[in-house]
Amino acid sequence: MNTRQLNYFLFLPLLFLLAAGCGGKGSRAQLKGQVTLDGVPVTKGAVRLVTEDGSMTESAPIGSDGQYLIAKAPVAPAKLAIVPPVAPFQPPMPKLPKDAPVPKDVKFGPELPPGFPQESEEDKKEIERVRNIHPFYTDPDKSELRTTVEKGENVYNIQLKSKPENPNWPKMPPGGRPPMPPPGGPLK
Question: 58 Cβ partners below 8 Å, 6+ apart?
Fold first, then answer.
């Protein structure tokens, strides 16, 4: 073996070790916690994590006990947001003339076809409760949910309020989401 081959033989493993890294930007850790809304566990939806610089993102579902686990969260300062559950698809009702006959075998309503999992009334109420959280909790840049993920196991409990205390957030109208800002300016 000549000197050049020996250098490659010794240098190549060192190059692989450096490429793999010993920490730094690609490091991952575990982030877990519980999500509550007004002190009651949230049981539907997901938690979304975005690094402060926006370069990496991860998400995890919220379990039936309100717990979430992001197994490979980037080790970095992070912003979090809640992803509400999606409402089941309901096709729009066709517009028929008032005097149009309705066939007897046609069913109208939110029933899902056979084979699809049916949601209980309790599930429907929880989905509606979580879907009506303040929309600022759904935006990682506005949510004010912040943590720094460090190596190892991290715990960050997310305590949402139906009436957030931030005076800069738009007020929620009764039974709905706040109005969206008009093009070209914030709400006053």
Answer: 48, 49, 70, 72, 73, 74
Q: Which domain holds residue 134?
A: 26-88+117-164
Burial class of residue 75, CB neighbours in 10 A (0-12, 13-18, 19+):
buried
State the burial class of residue 141 (Cβ atoms within 10 Å of its Cβ: 0-12, 13-18, 19+): exposed
pLDDT tens per residue across span 50-60: 999 999 999 99
Percentage of the chain modeled with pLDDT above 90: 40
Instruction: Give residue-wise pLDDT tens across range 8-64.
Output: 444 444 444 444 444 445 799 999 999 999 999 999 999 999 999 999 999 999 999
Residue 21 inside a domain? The answer is: no
Residue 151, CA atoms < 13 Å, CB-side half-sphere: 6
**Is 135 inside a domain boundary?**
yes
d(CA 44, CA 82): 10
pLDDT of residue 122: 84
Q: How far is CA 56 from CA 22, 49, 77, 80, 130, in A?
A: 18, 8, 11, 12, 25
Strand partners, 37: 40, 160
| Average pLDDT score over residue span 127-155 | 90
